[in-house]
């Protein structure tokens, strides 16, 4: 590729990024309907627990593949939370009693027992996150939020498969 092609490629990317930024800014100005609020709230809530438990697993897990998955999950949940915060203006809700209890159980576990508990909790959380995305996609109408839900749904399905593989190998 010559310099001119590189320049045109970069220009095209900048234009595409500008369009994406403009679309995101427009979506943030649109009033949120009940379906969008519910989707953002539930995704941030369930994703918040997935994030916190994965941050713990990055240091506490004994299996290399479990630690690797935890790293993927931290990156994914950090990104999804940022997108939802920027597009909805919402922050993740604080952990409730059930989430605090789940984290306490994980914190108390060690070794392979931790790995098994973490994987089981991630499977449960991902199933809940998948249901949130499916529910929104059946009722939500805001294009930007639908696109977020579509992307999240694919990633969640992939993670569920990885988690099932981890559970089978534990």
TrEMBL record:
**Keyword terms, alphabetized:** Signal
Question: Does this entry carry the keyword RNA-binding?
Answer: no
Q: Does the keyword Ligase apply?
A: no
Give the DUF4142 domain ranges: 37-166
Q: Which residues form the signal peptide?
A: 1-25
State the protein's name: DUF4142 domain-containing protein
Q: What broad taxonomic lineage does this protein's source fall under?
A: Bacteria, Pseudomonadati, Pseudomonadota, Alphaproteobacteria, Sphingomonadales
